[in-house]
Structure formats: structure tokens, C-alpha cells
């Protein structure tokens, strides 16, 4: 199968339970909850997206893509190579052939998903970030990372699902510092009154790295 990839880059995982860990990012093009066009944002099922996932390059098959990913890991530095597969929505393109090819290169595989599309088996770390009004296909995994606040979602709903970690991540609104501050305070207040939940900051944005 051919894959449409917006970008490949090497950085630190900025969010969630693996924040601070070096990782190669594989960002797939396309999402099922927004076209990616600004003109459609207001009517999108997921209107607060912080990511450009339109366009990019085609890879002819799993071996070609996995080889390009593996080539980004620094030689001789040690550590367990990690790829974070994101998007857009990775559930649209991620398949068993790509999982196998990435594992062949010794990569640990983490996925960032909105949870609405079933994923192939074999992923090492599954992060589900639920979106208001969207039913979940993936109801178990390593972490829930809920962008907060979001109207129409009660976080306690996810506590019945077997995830290892529960994170709230402040909803970023570029250019609106009052909203940013309010969203951060809402997350802090919720974590203090519901201690099962932990704060996930987007540390790459704080650091100014990709
Ligand atoms: C761009 S999404 C791609 C993966 C997948 N489509 C998803 O939504 O989980 C990567 C992560 O960024 C989060 N995110 C998107 N927009 C955000 C924003 N404005 N503020 C904070 N987190 C955001 C998503 O919820 C998700 O956890
Ligand atoms: N550094 C960094 N960490 C991230 N964790 C999840 C990201 C994403 O866009 O899925 C992301 C991202 O875009 N950059
Ligand atoms: S589901 Fe993920 S990629 Fe799609 S619009 Fe929402 S945050 Fe962006
Ligand atoms: Mg991001």
C-alpha cells in the first residue's frame, strides 16, 4: 500500500506520559474529523486542531516508509529508537505491513489517535485523544489525553476504560492569551479535584522545538 505522509522529523515527544523522550515523528496526511482547510474549520467535527496535515510526500510501500523513518535515528547514541505515528489521523493509513516493517528496524511504535478508527495490532504505546461527539473504537490503551476544556465531554466517562494514564491537556488557542490562561487554569483545577487525572503540557511549544 502507498502512504501519504505530511512530514518526518526527529524531536522530543512533547506531550503525555512519554514527554521528554527522543522520538522520530511520522505525521500522516489527512484526517476524518477535519479537511485541514481553514475555510472548513468552524464547521469541522474537531475545530481546535493545532496541526497542518495537508499535502506531503507519497511512499510506495511499507519498506520504503519504514526505511526513511529508521534513517532519522542518530547512530551510536544508544537508547531504544522510538517512532510516534500521528497526523492527521493515523488510523486512516496505519496497517500491519507498516507495523511489521517498523519493528523490523527495531523501532518501538507509539500512536497518537482520536480513537474513532480501529487500529491494527502490534502497537507498543496507544494514546487516545477523544473528541466531543465522536464514538470511540479504541477503548483501551496506554494513555487517554483529553484536550480540555471541551463542551460535551465528561472526563469521568473514560475512567471506566482500561487506560494506564489519564491526562488533561490545555486547549491551545494561538494568539488568545486570555483563553490559554483560562484553559490551563481549568486543567489545573480539574486535576486538583480529580487526582486520577494528570496535567499534560505541550512542552515542545514551551521550548520552541517542533
Ligand atoms: C494533531 S493530533 C493528531 C493525532 C490524532 N488525530 C488526534 O487527534 O489524537 C495530536 C494531538 O494534539 C492534540 N491537539 C490538537 N489540537 C490541540 C490544541 N489546540 N491544543 C492542545 N492539544 C491539541 C490532539 O488532541 C492530539 O492529542
Ligand atoms: N514535540 C512534539 N510532540 C508531540 N506529541 C504529539 C504531537 C502531535 O502533533 O501528535 C507532537 C508534536 O507535534 N511535537
Ligand atoms: S482529530 Fe486530530 S488531526 Fe484531526 S482535526 Fe482533530 S486534532 Fe486535528
Ligand atoms: Mg502537535
Automatic annotation (TrEMBL):
GO MF annotations in UniProt: 4 iron, 4 sulfur cluster binding; carbon-nitrogen lyase activity; magnesium ion binding; S-adenosyl-L-methionine binding
Residues the record lists as binding S-adenosyl-L-methionine: 48-50, 88, 129-131, 169-172
Biological process annotations from GO: tRNA queuosine(34) biosynthetic process
Class of enzymatic activity (EC top level): lyase
Keyword 4Fe-4S applies: yes
Annotated residues for binding of substrate: 12-14, 27, 86, 210
Residue numbers binding [4Fe-4S] cluster: 31, 46, 49
Catalytic activity: 6-carboxy-5,6,7,8-tetrahydropterin + H(+) = 7-carboxy-7-carbaguanine + NH4(+)
Keywords: 4Fe-4S, Iron, Iron-sulfur, Lyase, Magnesium, Metal-binding, Queuosine biosynthesis, S-adenosyl-L-methionine
Known pathway: Purine metabolism; 7-cyano-7-deazaguanine biosynthesis
Cofactor note: Binds 1 [4Fe-4S] cluster. The cluster is coordinated with 3 cysteines and an exchangeable S-adenosyl-L-methionine. Binds 1 S-adenosyl-L-methionine per subunit.
Essential cofactor(s): [4Fe-4S] cluster; S-adenosyl-L-methionine; Mg(2+)
InterPro entries: 7-CO-7-deazaguanine_synth-like, Aldolase_TIM, QueE_Cx14CxxC, rSAM
Sites where the protein binds Mg(2+): 51
EC numbers on record: 4.3.99.3
Described function: Catalyzes the complex heterocyclic radical-mediated conversion of 6-carboxy-5,6,7,8-tetrahydropterin (CPH4) to 7-carboxy-7-deazaguanine (CDG), a step common to the biosynthetic pathways of all 7-deazapurine-containing compounds.
Assembly description: Homodimer.
Family indicated by similarity: Belongs to the radical SAM superfamily. 7-carboxy-7-deazaguanine synthase family.
Alphabetical list of NCBIfam families matching this protein: queE_Cx14CxxC
UniProt name for this protein: 7-carboxy-7-deazaguanine synthase
Provenance organism: Magnetospirillum gryphiswaldense (strain DSM 6361 / JCM 21280 / NBRC 15271 / MSR-1)
Name of the encoding gene: queE
